[in-house]
């Protein structure tokens, strides 16, 4: 049996940006809430978070510390470190089980478990990820503005980067890491802009002063200010949504409506998990808030 102390009105699975945003709204709406969090936010490798209203250039861990601190006055909200492994629909709610066997019963669930970046197995890449290997110019482009950069990308991804980065950088070398799949028309544009393309497979990356030293398998070495790279595939942490029967797109994105409700009544989702792109902190904050608001609204209407 699940004890009363493990019974909540709302359980938020994932306690980083989207989850803590939902928790704040739920605390302010007096809802008995538990936040279950594995403690691995996506931007953990980055020294600073940028482009975030009033908190530009703040370490990600500090943003979450402030969020947790500001939840302290709300005594209906409990934060608990745990990884949820199973989720099941019950007669009047949902049951969640953690990897250590704890069980929680809740009327509504908000999933904010995010995504996982599957980095290419290039030696040195993982160690520089979020540091001098960056994926998003909106997040980190300003800090390396005007520097010469390398972009590890091919085909459409390279073409997309070329256009986007043109306002931040003029000296750009594209590393296709094998056969060039960039379109002919775009390659003409690259020539016009002075962008370079190197197709040699990449052997390794390492920090060099403030920049990055890149070794190619053909023996060439490059020095650059920073490297742009985006994993070809991110893994949407959607296994709980799947267990609950929520609709999931072929790419793995959990389907939500405008108020962040999934296709299963009583199950909400927010943050990176619910967007194919637009993976930004402000989107996670907004989604968490809307999910929290609408979980509260649903509970209120049920009791009315
Ligand atoms: C290197 C890097 C730098 C970035 N920098 C910026 C930036 O400067 N500005 C910006 O706007 N955006 C930035 N982003 C994007 C930003 O990190 C994401 O948009 C944001 O983290 C999404 O928040 P989230 O709450 O949806 O997911 P996450 O931050 O990934 O949090 C998900 C949480 O859920 C937990 N979890 C997962 N599964 C379970 C489970 N089964 N049980 C319990 N807990 C679970 C995880 O441990 C984690 O704590 C960056 C991303 C990366 C990769």
TrEMBL record:
InterPro entries: FAD/NAD-bd_sf, FAD/NAD-binding_dom, Ferredoxin-NADP_redctase_2. The keyword ATP-binding does not apply. It holds the Pfam family Pyr_redox_2. Residues 8-288 form the FAD/NAD(P)-binding domain. Keywords: Flavoprotein, Oxidoreductase. Transmembrane segments: none annotated. This is NAD(P)/FAD-dependent oxidoreductase. It comes from Chitinophaga pollutisoli.
